[in-house]
Queue: 4 jobs
Job 1
Amino acid sequence: MTQIVLPRNPLAAPSRRQLMLAGGAIFGWSLLPKIASAAGARDPRFITIVLRGALDGLAAVPPVGDPAFASLRSTLEPDSALLPLDGFFSLHPAMKNTQRLFRKKEMLIAHASATPYRSRSHFDGQDVLESGHARAGYTQSGWLNRAIGLMPASSQRASARGLAIGATAPLVIRGPAPVAGWAPSRLPGADEDVLRRVLDLYTHRDPQLGKALALGADIDAMARGGGAGERVQAGNARAFMPQIARSTAKLMSAPDGPRIAALAFDGWDTHAQETARLAVLLGGLDDAIAEFETGLATAWRETVIVIITEFGRTVAVNGTAGTDHGTATAAFLAGGAVAGGRVIADWPGLHSAALFEGRDLAPTLDLRSLLSGSMQDHLGLSRQALSQTVFPGLQTLKPAAGLIRT
Amino acid sequence: MSGRQTSPPHRALTALNRFGYGAQAQAPVSLKQIAADPRGFLLQDIARPGAALLARADLPSTADRMAAFFNYREMVRAAREKRSFDIENNRVVEPQTAKPSSGMTPPMQPTPENSNGAGVPNEALRAYREEVSARLHQAAATPAGFAERLVAFWSNHFCISASRAQPVRIMAGAYEREVIRPHVLGRFSDMLRAATQHPAMIFYLDNHISIGPNSRAGRNRGRGLNENLAREILELHTLGVNGGYTQADVSALARMITGWTMVGRQGRLGVPGEFAFNANAHEPGAQTLFGKAYPDTGVSQGERALDDLARHPSTARFIATKFARHFIADEPPPALVAKLADVFRKSDGDLRALTLALIDSDEAWNTPLSKIRSPWEYLVATARVFAIGEQQTRGFWGMLYQLGQPVWTPPGPNGFPDTNSHWASAKGMKTRLDLAVFFARRNAPRFEPRALLENFAGEAASAETRRAIAGVESREQGLAIALMSPEFQRR
């Protein structure tokens, strides 16, 4: 039985206005009646960003204080200097906004964290990450949708509380609770990653198609203003992520706008050329975070963004200047409502005895406790509701405390 | 040539892909069942009564389409006249009419043709889209797809072009339904006559303005012969460019089909929009074609000429080559072409016999699957493998423009080329990839990449493709790669 829990503070809903379209196409929402409530009341925003492909937490947030780290990852060192965080952990040089927010105490990082999933399949890992269940196979709804379903409905809002970004809603926000959707009206076209994978396949199986596609992609890149050489980098991601963030922020700033959003970004599966690719991808993600900060404006104070990925990557570097699938990784909590300025980690160490299955950073923090802790304190969901409905089977875990400013 | 197949391709997949439009998401017949009797699977498809006809029965006839067109033209004229003049600002004021909404189609817009300057919704474009949609739906829904592939082949052989003029656009769907579909398993000569006498073809290749110089109309107006249709009949529909006809033959045929026209709005010659024989425009006298004399017997003069063209030995060879090229390989096996030409000749152009001879041949089942799916075939196969319903396929007609194969709109009367070098173009492949990503995003919640691959390729899926799909970082990426795999792109 679903337990309806009132948030600690009612939502503000001053007037009935349409969702701002921000140049995209809105589809699938239900208009609900609303009641005006006290001015100045809390109006929390909660955004989930799923990074698909398994973000290398050790590259994004390098544990420089660990004596084993430097020698293990020397070949993947970024070109510019790492950004210091707290003496033990540093930050990838492309994440300047993240460092700035960390200093402002609006960024919290959870390292050596993972879901309960211990295999290494992207599909299953993402299912576990987004469904909120302890194992794969549950694809009917996501934990965020179930959380939305627990929040007081109709009377408070003029429109659906949830917002899914993309041509298809990420699993995390799919489910019975109605959710609006938005996607950019101009498709960015195939990203460099999928293009590269198809070209690789053609190299082995179909040279005729490979030649044609390579030429077509080059021409395409030139038409967009780049040169033929740009094709091998994740060029699109750099501009795409902040653009999506900007549009999402705009939608969420509307007085009647959605308050809970989910986005997904591809491209993180850095089996090869990791240094170059992460530089671009993390830069794009960092710019996206800044776009949220700017775009949400005064609402930033009441915002929590969780940035999560299905698992991490191997500690060791592979034969193609990249890493393979791993286990524990880093997660980020960003926003004016976050009690930030620290890295939460029960650090297991990187010496070989400490590694999970002899190859991966061992997980010491269950991601669900991070997520449930942030939702309990930021959205006012009860622990019981979180452990029964949002993260079934979480009874034994404690929601992490103190993640949200009081 | 693709791949390194040394053994004959999997027979069930050959049946589905070489001769059909590929696997369906919810197929009524499994790959295993097809493998038990792949030839029977195809035979069943074409043995059904009315196999190649469009199941949907409510689409208008050619005459009705033309009636709608005449009506539309009137509306445009009336709307233009309603424009008032704003004296103060010294300008013409357009009447306020709602623009049709663009819906959720992907951002690939077709050649614009909806401007009539009067804000009236373009009826020709609407009808065209409706017909494309019906064709697509049938191709996606039919279990085997063999009959539909035959329709697509013959429609391209006797092609018209919707971009020639609005009347052709509005008639294009009806043309295929009335001229092509009833005859793909019938007689070539019947299809030839139906095509040549259809107003869409007549209009497309200017025969409605071809006047016999010595006809009453010719003598009165001093207008003359237009050889366009006659030439294309010889060069493209029957003998082929090397079939052995001369300029004299072209002119003779052109004269014989003068007066073959379409009834105009006034309906003086019959039902508006239908074929009519205008005796006033017909060139009088006997004509000689390939050394044979054809007395002037009115409309049947040209009809008998067409019948004889259908029987010409070069025609058998020309058709057999195109037929084999479309289904088997860009360079069709010579033995197969010879066999098919023989069957065509001996059966007097019986297209069912021709089709059976094709699927009875060894080459049909032993030749590697090397032909790249045309854009139409690619989109239909995608619609099938994702069970994309009629609502979501509404944008497909525009995608086909982007892919270079807008339906019933070939670049010339020789139709769309049927070769890999044409379809595996740089832009074409990049556009296919962009679309694959688009479809993958839309369908990621419902499909798992490895299962999809298993469905359309089965055990024929290569190790490399399996590996590429297994290594992806999201469902969307896996589905996109599956669609771009050689197993899906070639048939």
Job 2
Amino acid sequence: MSLSEDLLDHSGEILFSTHRELPANVEFRRSISASYYALFHRLTADASELLAPRVSSDVRHRIQRWFDHGEMKRICARFAKHAPEQPLRNLLGGNASDELRAVATSFLLLQDARHGADYDLGYKVDLDKARDLFITATTAIQAWKRISSSAEANIFILSFVLWKNWERDR
Amino acid sequence: MSAEEQAGVQEKSQAEQLILSLPALPEVEDFQVRLSDDWIGDPSLYITFRLRSGTLVDDAFLGRFNRYRLSVSKAILDTDISRFPYTDFEKAA
């Protein structure tokens, strides 16, 4: 199993295990964090595979460390928009598909929630919120799997590390 | 009020009107749009949907809510509103 799958399982285990008492507040926060990282690691693992399919897993793991959360946020925000700005519009040949836009939107939602869960002591969490975000992550990963071999998915992934090059090449 | 604050108020109002024009989720009684910066400091919209009293928040509902929130987000992102829409729900008190 991949780290992404393990993290999603971990998030689900916290929330849906029937053999334990209701999780504590801290466990809702851990679940939200794990849900975000499940999507993050799915995207970065596929990105590393695209960039360097023939290297060892050790090298691929190092490549996965190139990806910056803030930069991924900015890229996802670009892809989530209708009528993306240039050079993205030319690269995609129009808009991103609704599925890719949904993945990008979900990434932003989960990332913001994760930041609240991990750092904001005033961030309100409960079981329903954590389950909501678990479903969001699960659905986004399923959507990503459906489109991950597409040309637009390639451009999406390459944008995480090459955006400045796209812009220079306008 | 600064130009930026005014633009935020305008976008908030635009988002509210847009949400009202969209097909509603039956479990949603009301909603609130709030202006705030997200974790990285980007001006954003925070939209909270208040659920009707007695709404069962089971997996079926969460699936419907996820589809609804993505359709609302998409509708907002299809406009010239610059702020990203973060969506959430809360149960009736």
Job 3
Amino acid sequence: MSLLEFARGPFSVLAEFVFYYPLFMSWLWMTGAVIFYLRNERGSALGVAPALPDGAAWPPVSVLIPCFNEGDNVRETVGQALCLDYPEFEVIAINDGSADNTGELLDELAAVHPRLRVVHLARNQGKAMALQAGSLLARHDILIGIDGDALLDPRAAWWMARHFVADASVGAVTGNPRIRNRTTLLGRVQVGEFSSIVGMIKRAQRSFGRIFSVSGVITAFRRGAVEQVGSWSPDMLTEDIDITWKLQRAGWDVRFEPHALVWILMPETLRGLWRQRLRWAMGGVQVLLRNLDVLMRWRHKHLWPLMLELFVSVIWSYALLLVVVAGLCQWLLSWWLAPELAAMPLLPAWSTAILGATCLFQFALSKWMDSRYDQGMGKNYYWMIWYPLVFWVISCAATIVACPRVIARGGGERARWVSPDRGIRIDEE
Amino acid sequence: MPARFIINARHQLDWRQRLFTDAATAGLWLFWLTLMQPLTSLLQFQVSGHFGLAVRPLAMNLFLFGHKSLHWLLALGGTSGLLLAWSRLPVHQAGSLAVSCPLQVASRRHPVCGDQLRQGRGANVCVVHHDEQGRIIAIETRRDAAGQRAA
């Protein structure tokens, strides 16, 4: 008996919604992603700097790197940022009250690298405040924010800065994060996830109008736009989602640039992954609650599809939980009353096969689009079979847990968090 | 793609962990492929004398599948078209998008004095102090742009 067939009466509509919503959204994302690819990526040369309009000059940029207890990563991150292939830039590392030797390491690096500047926050303030301080002290008006353990591609600045020159309404440009750590199963699956989910969704959202969130790990901002909307919010768990909505509400354009690469570390333990996804889910719910009013204002009409999708996704998570619980209860009841007739209603059947086939097709499509940025992705395709089983469950569970937590948290509390595990490193001993 | 950025320390994992992961993944693929079996039933044929009857279920299945697919394509195409058209609507902008002096705007939020801000911007190393509300109240420089230590 399929998932659809078992649910009768009041749950039949709910069960159909649980099945059809992710299926439909998957195909919608693929459609939008293909449109974006055909418009913006086909035929572009990755290793060549993009052209500017006639007479335009490359604007100087400030790379902001908030660091909190990044003693293990800061040398590599700052060193890579200083290798930026760009006419004029500075790197500002913001030591956010680290308890380890991050501050000392940054001071040592600043003594030998003239392009590096260091800002020490006297006490830990959180990423949003670190970015605010960096923005205030930066010498240039184009800010590129990356994480303290991220490795910026030398050509990333070319690809992001061109948008600000070409269009004065651009407030932010987000880049394309690639996963470095591929040791464990979790690491390998996340490689595919960032390509087939994050990258595909951003392409589709850009095609259809507005982006839900920039990637906090690599985004370029026009400083004037950020200051106009009140800068990064210190009470939001995901300052990247928040600043995206602030900018778009004010009419600024936020773009996705797949050629602007950054190499990042992701959790490779379930505990670390859960903590990260829970924070992301809580941040998404915070933004949902803070921006519900856009649905009442015609001037924010471009954000309605995003808001509706976010709202429906939250509903879907709870609906899935309800359907699963109801299905299990029905099976237990029928097994108790008439064991010879009981059939596990949640056993997958052809409907699940279609969902699975769609999933695998989405992964293949994203592999095709992203292979120019991340060679060897085909090998990870084999491990993506785990994605629906593990990541859907984690994302759904995170959303279910996030909603009541955010409501209980309220507003105004400073958002601080510690990055989860950074994956397994190669033991060089 | 810089290969040196990739971290693959699989050889450091315990062999039992690697074996379990590989075997579980292969098993999951087999299970997934068996789920495809209902889809292939659309193409079932019967041999020896039942070919006529077999064609009818096949044709009917294909018709139903095509009928549902058409609905699906219409929904997908319609939604995509609507979203594309929606994105072309005029954008409302809250006031002018040109911000003449973003630093003045930022400075108003933080009660730090202008001299300290200018010195901080010229320095290579500085320390920023915040109050309890998260506003910047002081900036002390440690090393200026010429690499000289602050007095």
Job 4
Amino acid sequence: MTKIFYDHLVVREEVTVELDKYSLAREEKEELIQLVDETLHHQILNTILTHLPKEKHREFLEKFHKAPHDESLLEYIKDFEEEIIKTAKKIKSDLLSEIKTSSRGH
Amino acid sequence: MGKQLNSESLRNRLKLRSFASEQKLLSSHVAAAQFFKEKQLRPGKIREHATRLLTSGILAGSLFLSAPTLLPSPSATPTERAVSLALPLQLNQQIKSALKFVLPEQIQPLNSDQETKISQILEQIYGLKAVASLENNKLNTDYGRMGAEQHLPRYPGDTAEAHGELIEKGITPGLGGWGYVADVETEKYYVAVQTLYLPDWKQRTQYYVDWYKFRRVVVVNPANGKVMVAAVADAGPADWTGKHFGGSPEVMAYLGINYGMQNHPVVLFFLDDPEKKIPLGPIEYNVKTGNPVLINKA
């Protein structure tokens, strides 16, 4: 999986483990994981941009676009990593609820 | 395993969530919305963008992939096994995304630049040394349509039933291009290639017969990113079929191309593995490191 610099803050495995309990075709599972990943990216970026001073936004986004994996980007989020972790946990919890809601007989 | 999920309902709900979260991001940060518009990139697709950077060589020499996870041991917990099982899907996705930016629109023989990039992608992600040309040998195409073949006889009197799997696909009435395919794995994961259309086939028949006999190849389905190692065990299909390769029932099934007209595009390269360390069959982890993902820090 191509790494994004904030991946270590986002424990997405619980969601994939939950999906793995169901009889899903590989393509179906792949699509669902893709949608989970997109939602996480939106929310994480929202959190970053909310807490990062506005004057830093352009600089951060340019570097992020050029090298999404670059660990030096962590410098931009070091003061609010906990917020990102909290956001990721909340999204993960919501997504797990969605999966459980969609299981038949629930 | 085997619990039921209303995947259609879940997919719709997740799509709504993804859309809503994207709208929230873009409406809350107008300058960022403008930035992503300039770059023609949707923020949720950042991982695909990172993969594109990888294939374009911008990240060459400084690949950063996720931390390795060991293949599950017999004593692995269900969670560990499930995590490792999830990762091949992500590798498939990575291959699929990467090939999208390399393959031509038309199904046709690849140019050398495309071949080089695909070789690099397969080596970086799966540790496979797969090449379009090996020992100065090259097929008439390396990106073409693969059609369905039947089981091949492994010994006199062999039957489809004796093959155990995909019996309904039947068995060829005659032998494959190289006779009986005695090895079970070779027959299971065989492909047919158009050796008969090599430009100097008639002049160098014996050389090609020997060289291509059970020659191991890497087959990739670009539609889903699935990769496998197969062995050449038959010649064909004929030109008039419009197909360029044939796949055994197991090859077609694993690659997910055993539906419809069964003439789906695949990439087929030679496997450069002189010591035959890599087994035939599906490839779902990095064969060099034994891990589902590769780390290669600059």
